[in-house]
Design goal:
Radius of gyration: 13 Å
Helix content: under 10%
CATH architecture: 3-layer Sandwich
GO molecular function, one term: 2 iron, 2 sulfur cluster binding
Number of strands: 10
InterPro entries: NirD, Rieske-like_NirD, Rieske_2Fe-2S_sf
Oligomer: single chain
Domain Rieske-like [2Fe-2S]: 2-94
CATH class: Mainly Beta
CATH topology: Rieske Iron-sulfur Protein
Order of helices and strands: EEEEEEEEEE
CATH superfamily: Rieske [2Fe-2S] iron-sulphur domain
Pfam families: Rieske_2
Keywords: Nitrate assimilation, Oxidoreductase
Length: 106
């Protein structure tokens, strides 16, 4: 779904993948775990743009996380892991570890 995220399970744990078709690149992937609560909720957050940076707002405490860097905009000492992601035909390719890829059907 455009402008939203989905949660996927990988060997590295839960990952939130976002599709923002108005941006290039249009796919972003970050950890699904909110570092402030420990809950797996970030894929359900609201996506947006703050000062030109694509972000997702945590549905729990409303902190904004950069979809480019994973840094929390309200507290730059906190970040979530980011993952390289791309569309390959009808599959999303998500790099979860060096030299190891996991494919997820789109």
């Amino acid at each position: 779904m455009p402008e939203s995220g989905i949660a996927v399970w990988t060997q590295d744990g839960p990952v939130a993948v976002f599709y923002l078709p108005h941006r290039l690149p249009a796919l972003f992937a970050i950890s699904h775990t909110d570092p402030f609560s420990g809950a797996n909720v970030l894929a359900r957050g609201i996506t947006g743009d703050l000062k030109g940076e694509p972000v997702v707002a945590s549905p729990l405490y409303k902190q904004h996380f950069s979809l480019l860097t994973g840094v929390c905009l309200e507290d730059d000492t906190v970040r979530v892991k980011t993952y390289p992601v791309l569309l390959d035909g009808n599959q999303i390719r998500l790099e979860v570890r060096a030299n190891q890829r996991e494919s997820i059907a789109a």
